[in-house]
Amino acid sequence: MKKIIAAAVATAFVAPAFANPTINGEIGYVFTNTDKLADSASAITNADANFIAVKHTSELDNGLTVTGVFQIEADQGGDDSTVSDGGSLSIAGGFGKLSMGDVAGAADAVGDYTDVAAWFGGYGLDGVDHAVSLTVNPIDGLTTIVSYSPSNVDNIGESTGVKGDVYGYSAKYAIGGGEVYYATETYSGVAAADQTMNSYGVKYSFNGIMVAYEAGSEEVGGSSSTANSIWGGIAEGTAGAATHAGGGGDIEFTGLAATYSVGDVTLAVEKQKKEQASTSIADQTTMSVNYAMGPLSVAVATTTDDTDSVDQTAVKFLYAF
Hints:
By secondary structure, this protein is mostly beta strands. It is built from 2 helices and 17 strands. 5% of the residues lie in helices and 59% in strands.
C-alpha cells in the first residue's frame, strides 16, 4: 500500500507527462443463422468481442520510446459474460522492440494471411498470446520475432489469452507487393512431451487484389482418446477429440484466400481445411462482402463446411473508434 500511495503522489507532480492518451475501441454485433440438415438456429453475438483500449507513448531522453496500453474487453459467450483486462508495456529503440504483458506471440504477430472474411472462416495456426516478445528491427525487409511465456501467467490479467509454458520464433520477409513468413511455437505444458506447431505462408497484392496461401501442422500429444491443443487443432475435451485420437498423427492445416477492394467495398473468399491422416476435420469455404462507411462497417458473410454439412449466414455491424 505504501508503494501505491507513493506512486500516486509522484504521478500527481508529473501529470503533464501523461497528458493526451489515445482511446480507441470497437463495438459490434453479428446476427447469424445456421442450417444443419433439417435443423435451423439463429443468434446474435459480439463481433469478435467489444473492447476499449487506452494508449500513451513517450520518447525518453536516451532515444528510447515507451508505450503503455491498457485494454478492457467484454466477450459474451453463451449465457455467461467475461470481462478481461489486459495491458502491455513496450520499449522500442535501435535494437527493435521489447514488449511485456498481453502481447502477440511470434506466430500470432505474423501470417494469418488467409483469414480474410468479415465473419466465419479463419486459419487455425495463427499462434497464441505470449507474455514477452522481442521484435528485431527489419534488415533489408527481413523481420524476426522471438516470444516466451513462463509457466505461470495467471497474474498477467483477468481472462486474457496469454498461454503459459510456450516459446516461439518467426521471421517474415517483404519485398514489393509480396510477403512470406515462417513461424514455430512449442508448448511445454503437457506431461508426455513438448508439442510444436509450424506454419508458413505467402501473399501478394496488386491493383486492389490480394491472394494468399498458408499451410502448417500441429502435433497432437499423448496416445489417449483426448487430444490436447492450445492452437487450432483438436481442443481438449471436445467431441472431435474422441474421434481424432491423440497419437493419430499431426493435424494438417491449409488456407487459400483472395480479396478485391474497390472504394469502400471489399470482397473476400477463403477456403480452410483441417485434417488428420486421411480424416477430414473441417473443409470450410467462406465468402463475404464488407462496406465501410467511415467508422461504421456492414458486412454479409456465408460459409459452408462440407465435413458436417453446415451452412451459415451472418450480417455484421461494427463501429470502430
